[in-house]
Design goal:
Strand content: 5-15%
Number of helices: 15
Number of strands: 8
Order of helices and strands: HHEHEHEHEHHHEEEHHEHHHHH
Structural class: alpha/beta
Largest sheet: 4 strands, parallel
Radius of gyration: 24 Å
Shape: flat
Length: 351
């Protein structure tokens, strides 16, 4: 490895101590800088959007920690004699901490999500309104009411499936056994098509072959079938040890989750991103097509006052850009607004 390679290798390496050294360099008691310790870049984009509204005259400086553990380690390692806590803020996802009985450091400059993770703040009617009005260009209210009513029913079905999966996940989380959850895909659990949200039907290979060969069955219906069994497929994909599965514990977990009123408290953030990118966006496109077809017919009539504008999305919302696009248009979540406002007021001697 030459000098240049060594230099870039050092730049790409990470440690909490390195991050704290950067804080020491960037922080000055007399300058309006706000330092955000976050898990990764998506978290920074999310929290930065809201911090700018409260700390409007401050320069926001990110400290991306590559994980929750590093965020909390950084907080514990800081020499607080050097810094004002209201200008050095920490943000982390709750995950399953409350369910597993895990306690974390608490302070007025540490923000823990009220939901499983920050992605779950994106699933609400306000966000759907933002997408419909600012991305599809719809300016009325009637269509929004219809869409939210339909999406609410779809979300109930979405949650019902994920409660089962979350009950399975908790078997491995409670025993601290290996389970690579990132390998579970939307297609393993759902199919969304013109008829709504479906659970894939897992069947024997011979039966699946019969369905595939049947020309009378539409392609989109054939796509609802999978080979094998769901639990077996997920165990293979996640490298979970099948011998660790316990049906009694599974039922206990299910009843525990069913007793939690707020589903977003235990649904993984990745899954709620699916709801936005794999269900809400396609659903809005379907509704926009219906709307545009009716608009085209109406615009052909004689004596109309003005053409009805069609709904065409000006961009696509996906996992790569959602944190760059939506937070800046959202209302500040209530718990986050309280956190930021409290610390801002501390900086200015209000509290």
């Amino acid at each position: 490895m030459n000098y240049k390679d060594e230099f870039f290798s050092f730049r790409e390496s990470f440690s909490v101590d390195t991050s704290l050294f950067e804080l020491l360099q960037d922080y000055h008691p007399k300058k309006n800088t706000l330092h955000l310790f976050v898990e990764d870049d998506d978290d920074y984009q999310f929290y930065r959007s809201f911090a700018l509204r409260v700390y409007s005259s401050y320069q926001i400086i990110p400290h991306k920690q590559r994980g929750k553990g590093n965020v909390l380690e950084a907080y514990q390692k800081i020499d607080w004699k050097r810094y004002s806590k209201c200008r050095v803020l920490f943000f982390y996802d709750k995950d399953y901490d409350d369910i597993l009985g895990i306690s974390q450091p608490a302070d007025h400059n540490i923000f823990c999500t009220m939901y499983y993770s920050l992605e779950n703040y994106l699933v609400n009617t306000n966000v759907v309104s933002i997408i419909l009005k600012e991305i599809f260009g719809y300016t009325g209210d009637k269509l929004l009411v219809k869409i939210n009513t339909e999406l609410a029913q779809i979300y109930k079905r979405f949650v019902k499936r994920l409660r089962l999966i979350s009950s399975w996940i908790l078997i491995y989380r409670k025993t601290d056994d290996h389970c690579d959850l990132d390998r579970i895909a939307f297609e393993d659990l759902f199919v969304f098509d013109k008829d709504g949200l479906h659970y894939p039907q897992y069947i024997e290979k011979a039966d699946l072959d019969v369905i595939k060969r049947n020309n009378a069955i539409p392609g989109y219906v054939k796509a609802r079938y999978r080979e094998g069994k769901l639990r077996g497929q997920i165990e293979v994909k996640t490298s979970a040890d099948p011998s660790k599965f316990c049906s009694i514990q599974y039922r206990i977990n299910y009843q525990q989750l069913k007793g939690i009123n707020e589903e977003k408290s235990y649904l993984r953030g990745k899954y709620n991103l699916w709801f936005i990118t794999r269900i809400v966006m396609p659903k809005l496109k379907m509704i926009a097509k219906e709307y545009n077809d009716k608009a085209a017919l109406a615009n052909q009539r004689e004596g109309r006052d003005a053409d009805i504008l069609t709904l065409i999305p000006n961009m696509e919302i996906n996992a790569n850009n959602i944190f760059h696009v939506l937070p800046g248009k959202m209302d500040i979540p209530v718990d986050l607004n309280s956190f930021l406002s409290y610390n801002y007021n501390m900086c200015h001697g209000v509290n």
